[in-house]
Fold this protein.
Amino acid sequence: MKVIIVANVDQRDEILSKNTNADAELIYLPNITGTIDQQNYDAFFFLSGDMNDILNYQISGKPVFINSVVETLSRRNLPGNYSRINGWPGFLQRQSWEVAAGNKVEAARILEGLGWNAIFVKDEPGFIAARVISMIINEAFFTLGDGVSTEEEIDLAMKLGTNYPFGPFEWLEKIGLINVYKLLKTLEREDNRYVPAPILEKRFADLTTSLTT
C-alpha cells in the first residue's frame, strides 16, 4: 500500500511513532502540490494546510482522510470518498483513531492495510475524545476563575485523581487555545454546557489581538 501524507513535522513524527505495516509505503509532503500522479497511490492524508486549499485539490475515487475536528463532512458537503480524523497535537500517535467516514468500508480497508486501528464514529463536531477533553479544559478554567486552585494544582490533581496523562492546562498547551476555543464555540450552538469560561474567552481575545497587532 502506498499513501501520500501531507503533514507538518510534528504530525509526521507522531505517525512515525505508530506501528505501521512493514509493506506500507508512506510518502510525506510538507504541503500540497499539483504534480502528484493520483493513480499511483492508494489513499491521501491531508493533515496540515488550509482547508480550502485541501478541498480545492480534487481527488476522485481514492480514499481521502482530512484533519477536521470541528467541521463535519456533511457541513462541507464532501463526497463519499472523504473521511475525517483528529489531527490535533497528541492525537495522531494514539493507538486508535476516531474516524468519521463517508465510505466506512473503503476507509477501514486503507487503515487496516496500514496497520492502524480505527473507531468509526458519527460525523459530528469534535468526535468524542476532543469533545471530552475540551470540556475538561473549560471546566478547569471555571475552577481557576472561582479561585479554587492554580493551573499547576489543577493539572496535578487531575493527573493524580484520574490517572490522565496530562492535566487540562497541559492539554491546552499541546492542543492550542484556538483549537479548543473554536470547538467549544461550535458545540455551544447545540448545548450551553460548552459555553467557554470567562477566563478562556479573555485569553482567546488577548491571543487574537496579539496576533493581529
Observations:
- Strands lie at 2-6, 25-29, 43-46, 64-67, 82-85, 96-101, 117-120.
- The mean pLDDT is 93.
